[in-house]
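4.2 Preliminary Data

To establish feasibility before requesting continued support, the project team ran the inverse folding procedure on a target of 112 residues. The structure was first converted into the token representation described in Section 3, and no sequence information of any kind was made available to the design step. The complete token record follows.
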């Protein structure tokens, strides 16, 4: 689990990323990112009810993405607010597949 200081939690922060952020997409995941003025990067995850009606499955996806970020956090450049938005079909993926998707998106943006 990510520490609280590395998480985007305020609606204002999410809106900033959605309105001004750079957009990259893969088959099951979208990344939006914007620079911040902090010495570290912060991360947010959006898993809508379109993904699954069951909260258990949505929370599992969020935990998988959070753990992937936590493990590769030292390699990620600092100074960005990054939001991952899940797409339909990600519920069926295991940790390795989710981790691979996240790494692809971060490399596209040039953060790894």
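Position-by-position output of the design step:
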């Amino acid at each position: 689990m990510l520490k609280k200081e590395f998480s985007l939690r305020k609606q204002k922060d999410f809106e900033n990323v959605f309105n001004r952020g750079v957009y990259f997409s893969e088959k099951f995941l979208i990344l939006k990112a914007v620079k911040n003025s902090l010495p570290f990067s912060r991360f947010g995850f959006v898993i809508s009810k379109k993904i699954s009606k069951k909260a258990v499955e949505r929370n599992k996806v969020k935990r998988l993405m959070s753990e992937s970020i936590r493990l590769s956090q030292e390699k990620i450049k600092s100074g960005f607010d990054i939001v991952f938005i899940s797409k339909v079909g990600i519920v069926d993926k295991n940790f390795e597949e989710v981790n691979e998707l996240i790494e692809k998106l971060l490399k596209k943006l040039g953060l790894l």
